[in-house]
Design goal:
heterodimer, A: alpha+beta, two-stranded parallel ribbon, 8 helices, 8 strands, 33% helix, 13% strand, elongated, B: alpha+beta, 2 domains, two-stranded antiparallel ribbon, 6 helices, 27% helix
Chain lengths: 323, 339
């Protein structure tokens, strides 16, 4: 019986041991990477679920636009110019069987009274309360809350034309000039020629949109009493008021997890509210960016959520007028 | 046992314990992930039910009452619908107020809609695509080419049914679930003036809603309770068998489900009209910007805004809601007093 290995045997044993150790190390490393990757995927999945859940809740409660619990995050409650979360006192009885809610206007427009004078039967300040209710409600909502709110509050088939006390069509609803809405509020967006034909939501949002945003520059420019357009056939389209700008700037960026480990993927939300091509859109973009790999993942959701009037009811901002 | 054997045993036991611990940790982690995913699944199901409940309100404004109805607010006189063409009420309720014991009456017990997939929906028809296909080699006689030799559509019946029961069973359908029983449900309650007056803002301050006969509280759930609010309701419906007669099971399902509360107000207005009905009362050089001027002979129905088969957004703006629309939708922070 030998007392020890030969040199050859020892060398082979050592060599094999090195190979085995190397393989074991590689396997351990691969396993560690797999575990790390699995962990990362699990975190991403959890963040994705958290992001989708947060997006659904934020769209429902409108927190990015107006945080009821934080007065410093209520930029749309101003009262000096139209603001979607300003207090409003208005009769909310829109029962279409009641004559006060009927539209009495002139489908052809009314500049020359060619087909008669619709202002005789309905206008702001008309002596008959039933005949002044709709134009006064439209002007009250538009001037207090803005155009998005006007479309939100009035029934789906509303025709947006109203006559002032002097019997002339109110320019804020009728004239399609691409003005600065802060200086001269406008509902219609001048896609085609300037004319005064009244429009419903379909006509108003044909290749045009209205959005709610907290973007300070747009708010300062009077976005709540203006609108955006895809194009303009006659005359220039102000670059600030294109729907491309609306989509780019009317988005609320939210970080649902402001505090998280630095190596975690970053979760962020982009929330949009606009009406465009006759559709009310509440759109959530859930984005996850991995700071390690640089990979990004985006998920877009459109949801049936709380409307603006519903959000205002959540905050108790609407009141009926005193009887 | 030698010292070597003992050492080997300790090493092996340690490694086995290590593997067991890792396995247990893995299983716990997987279970935790699965539970999180299931909770999210229930949230998503509840969210889907919001759309289902809103669609239910829209459709039942006009359909589903064994006669044509004219809306939750009858546009003819503002009364609480649904009412038939002659104005007769299509539900059990007070003619003046619309109040009654059960939905759709105002203040009546909520409609409970569990949305599992039925094995056979009521009055189902066969899914054959074409009962009377065109011949591959059509002849000169069009009457032979376009024939209706086979009746269509055909009721989906079972050959095992007797002739006497065939119509009734076909009409009734088979509510046996096809997988996923009880994953989602919604309830629809028609609110009273008192319910609207009791509405509160998120901070708890009174914020009365404007009442109309078309204000609803919608409860949307993801979970296995089939929409029963509590065990008493299960007993009242005699539905204990749905939960194996086990109240604890029901309470467990109730504790683990996701529920969202909403309120909404329906409007008979459809929207999606077109500005192209309207022409200015003065001439526009070259017609209107889309090329369809007031002197155009192209009828409105063919202008670009009314061509739904054009599958792009710019040609589909006339999305009318023939079941009406919603004046507002509000997510409620918690359950209303009655739902």
């Amino acid at each position: 019986m030998r007392a020890a290995f030969t040199l050859i045997e020892a060398l082979i044993a050592v060599g094999l041991s090195v190979v085995i150790c190397g393989a074991a190390y590689a396997a351990l490393r691969a396993t560690t990477q797999c575990v790390a990757r699995a962990e990362r995927l699990a975190i991403e999945n959890r963040l994705l679920r958290a992001g989708v859940g947060a997006a659904m809740d934020q769209l429902d409660f409108w927190t990015p636009w107006d945080d009821p619990g934080d007065p410093s995050r209520q930029p749309l409650r101003g009262t000096s110019f139209a603001a979607p979360f300003a207090p409003l006192t208005v009769d909310r009885d829109l029962d279409p069987s009641r004559p006060h809610a009927w539209w009495r206007g002139m489908p052809t427009g009314n500049p020359y009274k060619t087909y008669g004078d619709a202002a005789l039967v309905s206008r702001v300040g008309h002596p008959d309360p039933e005949r002044r209710w709709l134009p006064e409600t439209m002007t009250t909502v538009a001037r207090t809350l803005g155009n998005y709110a006007l479309l939100d509050y009035l029934p789906a088939n509303t025709v947006y034309q109203a006559f002032g006390e002097d019997g002339v069509e109110l320019a804020e609803f009728a004239v399609c000039e691409m003005t600065d809405p802060r200086a001269r509020p406008r509902l219609s967006v001048p896609i085609g020629v300037t004319n005064d034909m009244p429009r419903d939501i379909s006509g108003l949002t044909f290749a045009a949109g209205y959005a709610i945003t907290t973007d300070p520059a747009l708010v300062a420019a009077g976005v709540d009493r203006g609108g955006f357009a895809d194009y303009r056939l006659y005359g220039p389209l102000d670059a600030r008021w294109t729907t491309a700008e609306m989509h780019a700037r009317c988005v609320e960026r939210v970080a649902p997890l402001p505090v998280a480990p630095t190596h975690w993927p970053r979760l962020s939300l982009g929330l949009r509210r606009f009406v465009y091509f006759n559709r009310w859109v509440s759109l959530a973009e859930v984005r996850i960016a991995d700071p390690v790999s640089g990979a990004q993942m985006k998920l877009h959701l459109t949801l049936a959520t709380t409307t603006l009037r519903g959000a205002r009811q959540q905050r108790g901002l609407d009141r009926d007028p005193a009887p | 046992m030698s010292a070597r054997a003992g050492a080997v045993l300790i090493v092996v036991s340690g490694m086995a314990a290590l593997i067991a611990a890792l396995t247990l940790a893995f299983l716990v982690r997987m279970r935790s992930d699965a539970e999180e995913a299931a909770a999210f699944d229930r949230q998503a199901q509840a969210r889907l039910m919001v759309t289902a409940a809103l669609a239910y309100v829209q459709e039942t404004a006009r359909l589903g009452w064994d006669d044509e109805a004219f809306g939750w607010i009858d546009v003819r006189d503002g009364s609480a619908g649904p009412r038939d063409v002659r104005g007769a009420m299509l539900y059990d309720g007070d003619r003046a107020t619309g109040r009654g014991p059960v939905f759709p009456a105002v203040g009546g017990r909520a409609a409970r809609c569990a949305t599992w997939l039925w094995r056979r929906p009521p009055s189902a028809v066969e899914q054959t695509v074409n009962y009377n296909p065109l011949p591959s080699a059509p002849g000169p006689d069009w009457r032979a080419n376009i024939s209706y030799a086979e009746a269509e559509p055909r009721p989906l019946t079972d050959p095992g049914w007797t002739a006497a029961e065939r119509v009734e069973r076909w009409r009734r359908g088979d509510p046996q679930p096809v997988g996923g029983e009880g994953v989602a449900w919604f309830r629809c309650y028609r609110m009273t003036p008192e319910d609207c007056a009791a509405h509160r803002a998120g901070d708890g301050t009174p914020a009365p809603l404007h009442w109309s006969p078309a204000v609803f509280a919608l409860t949307c759930g993801g979970g296995g309770t089939l929409g029963y609010a509590d065990w008493d309701e299960v007993l009242a419906d005699g539905a204990e068998a749905s939960f194996g007669g086990d109240r604890a099971l029901f309470e467990d399902l109730r504790a683990n489900q996701a529920v969202l509360w909403y309120a909404c107000e329906w409007s008979p207005m459809q929207g999606g009209f077109s500005h192209k009905y309207f022409h200015a009362d003065y001439p526009v050089p070259g017609g209107f910007p889309d090329g369809y001027g007031r002197t155009s002979t192209i009828p409105w129905s063919q202008t670009p805004t009314n061509r739904p088969w054009k599958d792009d957004t710019s040609h589909r703006p006339n999305s009318r809601g023939f079941g009406g629309t919603f004046l507002w939708i509000e997510r409620l922070a918690g359950p209303p007093d009655r739902w």
